[in-house]
Design goal:
Distance between the termini: 36 Å
Radius of gyration: 18 Å
Helix content: 40-55%
Largest sheet: 7 strands, mixed
Number of helices: 9
Shape: globular
Strand content: 15-25%
Order of helices and strands: HHEHEHEEHEHHEHHE
């Protein structure tokens, strides 16, 4: 079994550390709930609907496919996946795309342990290596050591300026970063930046773009609100349907929080004060 590397995103007295600990606890809980329901290797995204009648799982898989296809890995490439969830998206990538190795990064120790165990069971432990390290501090990677990086619905949790800088550090010049990303629409101005840390991390799209363009050229920008809304709203029902099987009060709190967040995001996407984009960036 591949080693699990551990690192801290921030010094202990950094005010952002509390949010990172909360997110880690939250995704540990989500993984525990998925495993308890017999679906430990599941996707953690809202999906991308390409046709009517898609199952929820297929809709989620289509988003993974869209992101990795945009990344366009080559047979000898080294990949990085930040915020990989249960790891299922990387097992999908290993089945469908040619690349040498993928390094996954996550702040949920439980998800790292689950993905590492699954990779060993599937004989993929040399090709898929998972690390308990934050996206802002990928200690396992040397400078300019990565050809392609993906981030699926997780950048709103990151300290974005630090993440863009760190992604630029580990990507080689000309390397590609592909994000399935949410942000407040540009017309909302600096209103999100006046909110709490969660809102500031999600950010205003125009502000986020100015931050990433310090390090990256924008090669493709595709708004996918319309394709994402159905899965986002569907996830509310998916979450609530599992609620009766949850006994632990802290887990119920996280599960209800996920349903509420999905409902708010779905409404925001419909009203377009939140935007969801597939973003393809190239390292300067």
């Amino acid at each position: 079994m591949s080693p699990i590397h551990d690192a801290s995103a921030h010094p202990a007295d950094d005010p952002q550390a509390a949010l990172d600990r909360e997110l880690s606890e939250q995704y540990d809980a989500f993984q525990a709930l998925s495993e308890a329901q017999g679906a430990g290797s599941t996707y953690f995204n809202w999906g991308y609907r390409t046709r009517r009648g898609q199952s929820y799982a297929e809709t989620q898989e289509r988003l993974v496919e869209a992101v990795f296809t945009a990344a366009a890995p080559a047979p000898g490439d080294i990949l990085a996946d930040v915020g990989f969830g249960s790891g299922e998206q990387d097992f999908f990538a290993a089945r469908h795309y040619s690349f040498a190795r993928l390094h996954g990064f996550n702040i949920s120790r439980r998800q790292v342990e689950h993905a590492t165990r699954r990779a060993a069971e599937l004989g993929l432990h040399e090709r898929l290596v998972f690390h308990h390290q934050p996206a802002e501090h990928m200690q396992a990677l040397a400078d300019a050591s990565v050809d392609r990086m993906v981030a699926i619905e997780c950048a709103p949790h990151f300290d974005r300026p630090r993440f863009y800088k760190e992604a630029a550090r580990v990507l080689r010049p000309g390397g590609r970063l592909v994000l399935a990303d949410l942000a407040f629409a540009g017309w909302t101005g600096d209103l999100p930046l006046r909110g709490d840390e969660k809102l500031r991390r999600m950010g205003n799209f125009d502000h986020n773009r100015a931050e990433w363009e310090v390090h990256f050229h924008t090669r493709e920008l595709r708004n996918i609100n319309r394709e994402t809304v159905p899965g986002c709203l569907r996830s509310v029902w998916h979450v609530l349907r599992g609620l009766p099987r949850i006994q632990q009060s802290s887990h119920r709190r996280h599960w209800l929080g996920l349903a509420l967040t999905s409902q708010i995001m779905g409404t925001g996407l419909l009203l377009r004060f939140i935007r969801y984009d597939l973003i393809v960036l190239e390292r300067r």
